[in-house]
Specification:
globular, seven-stranded mixed beta sheet, about 210 residues, alpha/beta
Length: about 210
């Protein structure tokens, strides 16, 4: 009910009437290593379905930073997952979020952001921040709803991903998600200049 209420309060930034399901979370978080001590950044964690899947894969290792612009979602996430470093911040300020934590990169970035709700510049700013935070071996995953895949915002996202990564693989459709979704697995980031002067908060967590 809390997710639906947040959607009613701000439909253009929450981006969905229901949180993503566990099956989608499982597919989106596959790049999180099950060994070592990776730095994993989660964008738009919402109510925490992706968060729980990341925590399960990390099993107490590494760092998990969750960036959430919705203050209520961020507070609930911090209470529910005390092992997660929750940042109440805009995804466009990813570099600043990492810097305040003594980090200069993320091995994996998992996004639950509602891309279809973003104007072109905001979409580009977030992707630029993601690419800047990833080393050459870094991986970025995000998802799109199947029914909206051919809309202008979804096509723009697909083009932007292919401009910023050498490899973009579209995963299988997760039919039992509501609505059905597919995951983009993006590897080998191509550095692009960040836009200057990021403005007001961008979007509230949508995925989890």
């Amino acid at each position: 009910m809390s997710f639906l209420w947040e959607f009613v309060r701000s439909p253009l930034t929450v981006g969905a009437v229901a949180p993503s399901g566990r099956s989608l979370a499982g597919v989106a978080t596959v790049p999180v290593p099950r060994s070592g001590a990776p730095v994993v950044v989660e964008l738009g964690p919402g109510t925490g379905v992706f968060t729980a899947a990341i925590q399960e894969r990390l099993a107490g290792r590494g760092r998990h930073v969750a960036v959430e612009v919705n203050e209520r979602f961020a507070a609930r996430l911090a209470r529910a997952h005390p092992g997660v470093d929750v940042a109440w911040a805009d995804a466009r300020d990813l570099a600043g979020v990492l810097a305040t934590r003594g980090l200069d990169r993320a091995d994996v970035v998992v996004s639950g952001l509602p891309w279809a709700a973003f104007p072109p510049r905001a979409q580009g700013d977030v992707l630029g921040a993601v690419v800047a935070a990833l080393p050459p071996h870094g991986v970025f995953t995000t998802f799109a709803y199947v029914h909206a895949r051919w809309t202008a915002p979804a096509r723009r996202l697909s083009r932007a991903l292919r401009d910023r990564f050498d490899e973009v693989v579209v995963g299988r459709t997760v039919w039992d998600n509501l609505p059905p979704a597919l995951v983009y697995h993006c590897r080998r980031p191509v550095p692009v200049p960040l836009r200057a002067g990021a403005a007001a908060p961008l979007a509230e967590g949508e995925a989890s």
